Amino acid sequence: MNTQIQNLNQRRRTTSGFTLIELLVVIIILAILASVVIPKVVSRTDDARISAAKSDISAFSSALNMYKADTGQYPSADQGLNALIQNPGVQGWTKPYLDNMATLKPDPWNHPYVYTYPSSHGQEFDIVSAGPDGQPGTPDDIVSWNLDNHQ
Fold it and tell me: Which end of the chain is more exposed for a tag (fewer CB within 10 A), N or C?
């Protein structure tokens, strides 16, 4: 009986646990899954940032139009988008035109939005986010005159 128990314990020790090959197979399977899933998740993050920049530019455009309705003009390029938050001394300015902002927030890549008045693209004004690369004038820019066609 004692020999039987010893044989059973010895068999358990030799069959329990994973072999190195089994562990390698599991690691390879996880690596393959990660290589498929990670690019999709990263792509969604970029898409979300682009959507946020488009939303910000649309909000700025609406606020600029309200500013013009109250003051009769758009802010100058020197006054910039800050004129939507703090009165630049213009008659008719009634309120901050952007809700809950003490200062102008940067784009989703932490770069400032660029406001130009008058526009050089057939609009009243231009608002530009330099996009993911942070370089203005490159194809990844998000621009007010072409919001619907970006990427």
Answer: N
Residue 64 resides in a domain: yes
The DSSP result for 27-84, as a single string, is HHHHHHHHHHHHHHHHHHHHHHHHHHHHHHHHHHHHHHHHHHHHHSSPPPTTTGGGGG
The count of structural domains within the chain is 1
Is 151 a residue whose pLDDT tops 60?
no
The pLDDT value given to residue 86: 86
Model confidence, pTM: 0.69
Which domain, by its residues, includes 51?
19-149
CA atoms of 73 and 90, how far apart (whole Å): 9
Tell me, what CATH number does 86's domain have?
Answer: 3.30.700.10
Asked, for residue 116, whether it belongs to a domain, the answer is: yes
Q: What is the DSSP letter of 82?
A: G
Strands (E), 1-151: 114-116, 126-129, 142-143
- Residue-wise pLDDT for 68-113, tens only, equals 999 999 998 899 899 898 888 888 888 888 876 667 889 999 999 9
Q: What pLDDT was estimated at residue 33?
A: 84
